[in-house]
Hints:
Oligomer: single chain
Strand order of the largest sheet: 5-4-6-7-3-8-9-10-11
Distance between the termini: 99 Å
Radius of gyration: 29 Å
Largest sheet: 9 strands, mixed
Structural class: alpha/beta
Strand content: 15-25%
Number of helices: 9
Order of helices and strands: HEHEEHEHHEHEHEEEEEHH
Number of strands: 11
Amino acid sequence: MRVSASMAGDELARLRQRVAEIEGRPPVLPGEAAILPFGLGRLDRHLAGGLRRHALHEIRGATAPESVAAFGFAAAILSRLTKSDPRPVLLVAEAGSFGETGHPYAPGLAGYGLDPRRLILVKAKRPADALWVFEEAIRCAGLLAVLAEIRGTPRQLDLTASRRLALRAAESGVMGLLLRHGSNAEPGAADTRWHVVPRPAGTLQDFPSGIGRPAWRLDLERNRHGPTGLFDLEWNHDDRSFVAPARPALSLHRVPLSADRPHPSDAARKILAFPPAAEDPARDRGEGEGGAPSRRAG
């Protein structure tokens, strides 16, 4: 009897589900359930549906403001993950990263729709310790996701370590988010890599009603499932969803002059402007009236 590729795949999926039940782990998510869509057509098409839950994703900021924005983007991803899964999320960071971007702020996380009570925070002294906790936590299927904050390019985070982290995420089904502060693009095995830059907030209805949503420009630098590209998007914390950018807070390139202020006439411009030096021979000789040195109020 011949076994088709689809039948073999179904049988393998059933075996994985059975192993997960025996080990007391959450069931392996099949097909589309293993993908977290952004809900934005163009971006999801680039990603062949969205972010893989059982994968490693890298998010980086080259400067401190970018790193803060990158953490906000990661928090939005975690907020979407926790909408339909009760498992907790672990955050691990080396102590030095808190000095640059600050500690996670519970009311701020709640503003993103991410319940702080769902989070487990681990502070490590060294990058090597943070990476060790990251790898061990990704192997724990009782967690929904693990976010690790690492500064710069420590030698422990090489291509081999990145491949190991990606393998652990694929085996356990736990999403790994590697947030790198002050880092350039480095070789790695992440499923996707994002460079996050903050954007000016758009307005909702009108400017006096308050500032708009968190907004980012995302540079998808690495994508194993399609092309790369630039994407502008915002975060709607009420619906816990990504949305297209709202209109800019200021639609003009510069502040216009007051409507009741007349434009200066040509005569006024001549009065306000200094005459060329050649038109004042006395000044060229350094003499004013009576042969005294001249000092003009500029």
